[in-house]
Specification:
Number of strands: 5
Order of helices and strands: HEEEHEE
Distance between the termini: 31 Å
Bound molecules: adenosine monophosphate, zinc ion
Structural class: alpha+beta
Number of helices: 2
Strand order of the largest sheet: 1-2-3-5-4
Largest sheet: 5 strands, antiparallel
Radius of gyration: 14 Å
Amino acid sequence: MPSCLFCRISAGEIPAKAIYQDADVVAFEDINPQAPLHCLLIPRKHIATLNDLTPDDAALVGALHYRAAQIARERGYADGGYRTVFNCNADAGQTVFHIHLHLLAGRRLGWPPG
Ligand code: AMP
Ligand code: ZN
């Protein structure tokens, strides 16, 4: 999707601070971090919102979560804790319409979220 910011990051057309990438998943630092660790994990496949998932995407979403857990562990946050979040559409505050999993860690995170 040429006009999509995260498709362009996935393609290397827009720079991002890479954390991890493979054939299906890219992880990079959030440009406006809300915690000492705040990264975004995206599928290379363009999927606008969680509402657009198909049964074939289930493994891909699992891969995003698995990779988030690996990154949290590598960065030393597995035991202390961390949060993963998908925002979907306006009421959740989704601003980029290519699904992305937020991984936040390194400070005490409030609950419920705002
Ligand atoms: P959301 O509100 O869930 O759609 O989250 C979008 C996230 O993308 C926000 O946390 C932004 O700070 C982040 N973001 C926007 N543009 C960029 C960019 N060019 N590189 C990295 N993160 C970005
Ligand atoms: Zn996209």
